[in-house]
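Notebook entry, cofactor series.
This is the third protein in the set we're modelling with a bound small molecule. For this one the ligand is flavin mononucleotide. I'm keeping the input format identical across the series so the outputs can be compared line by line later. Sequence and SMILES below, as received.
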Amino acid sequence: MSKIYVVYWSGTGNTKAMAEKLGEGITAGGKDPEITEVDRIKAEGLKDEPVFALGCPSMGAEVLEEESMEPFVADLEQFVQGKKIALFGSYGWGNCEWMRDWEERLRNSGAEIVGGEGITCLNEPEEDTLSALYDLGKKLAEL
Ligand SMILES: Cc1cc2nc3c(=O)[nH]c(=O)nc-3n(C[C@H](O)[C@H](O)[C@H](O)COP(=O)(O)O)c2cc1C
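Returned structure with ligand:
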């Protein structure tokens, strides 16, 4: 069974819950989700992966978490050309600017954002978000 990485950062568990539901969808689609905290993997670990998912909440002032996820994504930008990447994350009060910037950044580096945009949710993911993540996981497994 081939693996699909789901690499995430989560401070209070909301984005982690999203990662887990995405993983359930990947399993349902017949692939093996490798759900990994960003601190446990180097960007080069994704170099040979054509399809993967990244999750991070909105932090700072509408930016990625700066200690781990930001440098990880900066490294990824060097080699994501042609890769299909799903994005997701939770936010608390903003207008999802962090996600729009993240999508644009990866697109500018030549990646395709699976589904056209990242999945976002206010605080804890509710049923509609979880269902969208499950479907996205199945879609990733079929790519
Ligand atoms: C230091 C810090 C900065 C944050 N900055 C933003 C922000 O700029 N915009 C926003 O919508 N939410 C912001 N949030 C709220 C988080 O995105 C929100 O609590 C989210 O659900 C956390 O996800 P997690 O449980 O995966 O860590 C911030 C939270 C913290 C702790």
